[in-house]
Structures are given as C-alpha cells and as structure tokens.
Specification:
41% helix, alpha+beta, single chain, 9 strands, globular
Length: 216
Amino acid sequence: MFQATIHLHQHKDCVLSEFAETFDVSFDTTIEGLHDHRVTFVIELEHRAVEAADFFTASEQVNHLEQLDEESYLVTKDSCGAYEAVDLNNGILRRRSVITADRREYTILCFRREDLRAMIDEFRQIGDVALEKLSKFHRSTDTLTDRQFEVLECALEEGYFEWPRDADSETVSGKLGISRATFLEHLRKAQSKLLTEALERHDRTNQAGHIEPRSR
C-alpha cells in the first residue's frame, strides 16, 4: 500500500476555490460521500461561517447546505471530478483535503502504482498536478470502532458486497437508521483499516516463512 500527497491546481471553476479566493482563506474539507456526480463533505471555518452560508447558498453548484455547529457545514455540490478520480481508481482519502484559492492538497492511500498513475492521469484532465510525496504506508494494527463494526456487519448481511449487489447503500443505511453519507464514511474507514491489517499480516507471514540458507 502506498500513501501519496498530491497537489492539484484545478482549471475548472469551483465554488470552493472561489470561496477561498473571495475571502482570502484556506480551509479543510472532510469527505462524507460521493454519489450521482455529486460530493458531500464537511467544511470547517473558524471565522467565516456566516459568510460561508450566504456564499454557498447563492452558488448554483451547491445542492444542499446544512449547518452542523457554529463553525461547520455539511455541503453537497456538483463534483468537479477529483474525488471521482480517487474513488474510481480504488483510492482512499486518508486525511482532510486542504483547499486554497489556487490549489488542492489530497493525501491518498492506494494499493497499486497502476491505480495511482490512472488517478493522476484523470487529475490532469482537470488541472495541473504535482505529486509531492509517495511512500509505502505502514501503520500499527487498528481495531474497528463499534459503529464501524456494526456498519460492516450489516453491509455483509444485506449483501452489499455481493455482485451484483443484493442491497445498495440507501437500503443498508436505512436498515441502520443513518444517512447514506454517514454509512459510506463508516464503511470506507472500516475497509481501510481491515485492508491495511491484511496487508501487514501478509508481509509478516512472508517474512516469517522466509528462511535464510545456512552459511557453510
């Protein structure tokens, strides 16, 4: 598994870049879900909450705006393509994305270099791309939270991982009594933890099974 830090200068007009430029701020976003060419995320702003509400409400790109607390909003907007490129190429956003007026910074986990190359190729259709850092990702074993386990267990029981699927994300999230975006976020985090643990176990098994020949 690899961890990549990618910078993107997006050519297409985007309400997030416009907000950062208009109010001369940088901010973080946390992705909650991707669906129907729309992306849902949480945006955290310390001092611009009121201006953000007015700005996003006036934008034709924004489909839904919901205030979570004094400094945070849940926003659904038309996808500009970056998050879709990550998702379609088996990438996992590990940290919050950083948004400024002229660039985006993404920290991404990917399993194969081929996936990363395909992802960057799609980014190049959106704007200028720079791969700042690429490293192998190692992490100590994590256990799932109770909520992540519940989401994963329900998804398995309902046939979400079957092909073709017996139940879609709307059905499973309804069973759990949570939003589709929350279900997908818990599921993605659980998958990331389990896949990382599986890769680490595989590495340890290979190392344990490799016996150096005795010197004569």
